Amino acid sequence: MKVICIGRNYVKHIEELNNEVPTEPVVFMKPQTSLLKDNKDFYFPAFTKNIHYEAELVYRICNNGKHVKRKFTKDFYEEVTVGIDFTARDLQDLCKEKGLPWEKAKAFDHSAVIGKFVPLNSIENRDKEINFSLDKNDQTVQHGNSAHMMHSIDDIIVHVSQYYTLNIGDYIFTGTPAGVGPITIGDTFTGKIGDQELLRCSIK
Ligand code: ZN
User: Fold this and answer.
1) Where are the domains of the chain?
2) CB of 153 within 8 A of CB of 170?
3) If you measure from the C-alpha of residue 56 to the centroid of ligand 1, how many angstroms do you get, rounded to a whole number?
4) Ligand 1 geometric centre to CA of 152 (Å)
5) CB count, 10 Å around CB of 201?
């Protein structure tokens, strides 16, 4: 099982972090130990002082394959949820400055929070748009719409499967919209698709 993540997939989020707009998807991975499921609490780790939440649509891969052609990408996913890509922004800034890999900032234990999956065919507009949001202590801090992704889930599957064989049970985090910010002990986050709450995570 692997967690494949896409960075810089929404223009407004790229602008808020002053990053360059990439010409192809920015890809990184998280290991199995990064997963946090079933609405469990997140414990703020000692190695960072600044963790940001990044709410993202997360797809579960339901097929095995590599070099997936565009006409077959729909065979690779049928469920979606909201996730949080926790990012140690202070470590990431250091990594970026020094040109180092991002794993310490992105792939630490429980940095990949995932909600309850729902079938795509239960969501309206399956092929058009999925609206999702993240609330922090009952205030909405991020709103996203899949139609605003620079690289759609289909583009992402074509791209990443050139490099990595996709397997049943893999997850793809598709990048975060604008509105990222720091987490504090005591915060509770809730993630929704439409009005349906799929994720809850408290910071301890
Ligand atoms: Zn992210």
Assistant:
1) 3-202
2) no
3) 7
4) 15
5) 25
Q: Which fold does the domain 3-202 belong to in CATH?
A: Fumarylacetoacetate hydrolase; domain 2 (3.90.850)
Give residue 49's Cα distance to chain centre.
21
Edge-to-edge strand ranges of the sheet holding 139-145? 139-145, 131-136, 188-193, 196-202
Q: 119 C-alpha to center of ligand 1: Å?
A: 22
Report field, pTM of the whole predicted structure over 0.85: yes
Q: Is 67 exposed, middle or buried (0-12, 13-18, 19+ CB in 10 A)?
A: exposed
For residue 2 the two structure tokens come to: 């692997």
Rounded distance from Cα 112 to ligand 1 centre (Å): 9
The per-residue pLDDT for range 125-138, each reduced to its tens digit, is 655 689 999 999 99
Ligand 1 center to 98 CA (angstroms): 20
